[in-house]
Amino acid sequence: MPNASNSDSANAEEVALEGGCACGAVRYRLEEKPYDTGWCHCRVCQHVSGSGGMVFTTVHHDRYRILAGEDHIGRFASTSFGSRTFCRTCGSPLTIHVRHQPDEIDIAAGTLDDPEEIAPAYHLYTAEAPSWMPMMAFLPRYKALRPKTRGLEEGVTEAGSPP
Ligand SMILES: [Zn+2]
Ligand SMILES: [Zn+2]
Ligand 2 centre and the CA of 87: distance in Å? Predict the structure, then answer.
């Protein structure tokens, strides 16, 4: 008979999604079902994707495991409130970590081995999106962050420090 901890890890095994960068140097595993998936169209996402936006999904920080290529991972402060990681060899964006969600990490969903495992539920920072960016018509759109963002006071839609 499996004990409780065995069945927990079997369960974690079932939901584990893996992914990695374009060159294959960096590999990771999400050890819980990712949640809170959405598009972001901020200018940083435009720069790092070279496109009109990116999809991110979220897990708790301790559920994000680097399996390979830790030494290939670069990091930069992408805003006053967050940092991003990427593969230093191929440039693939990997994660965002923000100050107001210290125990969570956002994963660039296009790096999942099977991106069909997630589905975006909203569009953020649409005010910064280029006019040629197609939006999913049935999803809610927010000019910046959502007025209910974990870690921010209700109604606050910007995470940066005020100018
Ligand atoms: Zn790479
Ligand atoms: Zn963004």
Answer: 18
